[in-house]
Structure formats: C-alpha cells, structure tokens
Amino acid sequence: MVYKAYCEQFQRDFKLFLKSRSEELTPGGNMVLTFIGREKPHQISDPCVVILGMVLKDMVLEGLVEEAKLDYFNVPIYGPTVEEVRQVIEVEGSFALQTLKTIQIGWDADLQEDVDNFVFNSKRIVEFITKTIRVVYEPFLSAEFGKDMMDELFSRFSKKVSQLMELETLEYTTVVMSLTKAT
C-alpha cells in the first residue's frame, strides 16, 4: 500500500515537472535529467536508508532510541524504475524520449581513483560517504530522534558502511534520460 502511494505521488510530481519544463523550452529543445532510481520494481531505491534502519534498530535494542519513534518514522523517498519513468513521459506527452537508461554510481563517487595525485584510502572514503549521507538525512532524523543522537547514529552508520565496503561495492542506481520537446 505504501509502495503504491509513493508510486502514484511520483507519477503526479514527475508529470507536473515535465509539463512545467515543456512551457519553458522551445519546440525541439533538449533536456537531460538524472535522479536516483532502481533496477527492479520492488527493490529498495535507497540502500543507505536500509543501513540507517539497521543502526536505529541496534540503538533501540540498546535502549538509546525509543521503539515507538522508530516504528513511526518513515523516509519518504521513491526511486522509480526506467519503465515507470517511460510511462509518465509517454502519458504526459510533451517530450520525445531520446535516451533512457540506468547507470550504477558508487557511493564514494569513484574516489578510489587518484585525484590530482591524492589517493583516498578506505577510511577517507567512508568519511566522505558518511558526511554526504548525514547532510541529506540529518534534518529529519534529528527532528524525530533528537539532535543529541546524531553523532552516535552517524558514527555507527560509518562503521556499518566500512563493514559493507569490505564485502560489496556500494552503488546507487541512477536513471539518466535525454528528452526533446515535442514540436
């Protein structure tokens, strides 16, 4: 039921976005968009939410977070599949789809490569990932669980990310599309 509600909200929002952009572009004008998505219909679109959930559950078990607060908490994020995106573009009708695909982008923004002769070690990569995720999620996590919990929460998040990086490559699925305004 939640999945369906999020999907319907995405459809409404993306349709309105396309309509609004079509009013700004001249016929034949191009637009390139990228956003977080997912490969499979019932896959979780933002894996860092799963890790944050694991950390919060651990903190509940240790009595650091109230279970009722965690039960009530919801992260309103929806990453569409390519087919969901295609369907909205076709139904809305203002744009011709030129390219639509997914690509995998590492959580570390591929920092394992040398950048101006500076090599990022795994500790710095985990630090980068944690800071990036903290900037995005801390405002609504602190509203629900309190500001005083954030350092502990993201310290634990950092440790989980470090453990997971030893086992697998952490990646986001990104939807990439190129559209041309219909004439």
Please, could you describe this protein's structure?
The protein is of the alpha+beta class and 183 residues long. The protein has helices spanning 2-24, 47-61, 67-72, 82-92, 122-145, 150-167, and strands at residues 30-37, 95-106, 171-181. The two termini are 38 Å apart.
**Largest sheet strand order:** 1-3-2
What is the terminal-to-terminal distance?
38 Å
Order of helices and strands: HEHHHEHHE
- Low-confidence residue ranges: none
- Strand content of the residues, in percent? 15-25%
Radius of gyration: 19 Å
Mean pLDDT: 86
Alpha-beta content class: alpha+beta
Choose one word for the global shape.
elongated
Main sheet properties: 3 strands, antiparallel
Helix content: 40-55%
Would you count the extended β strands for me? 3
Q: Helical stretch count? A: 6
Could you give the topology of this structure?
Layout: H1 2-24, E1 30-37, H2 47-61, H3 67-72, H4 82-92, E2 95-106, H5 122-145, H6 150-167, E3 171-181
Antiparallel strand pairs: 1-3, 2-3
Features of the shown structure:
183 residues; alpha+beta; 3-stranded antiparallel beta sheet; elongated
Question: Quick gist of this model?
Answer:
This protein is α+β, with helices and mostly antiparallel strands. Helix content is 53%, strand content 17%. Helix 5 (122-145) crosses helix 6 (150-167).
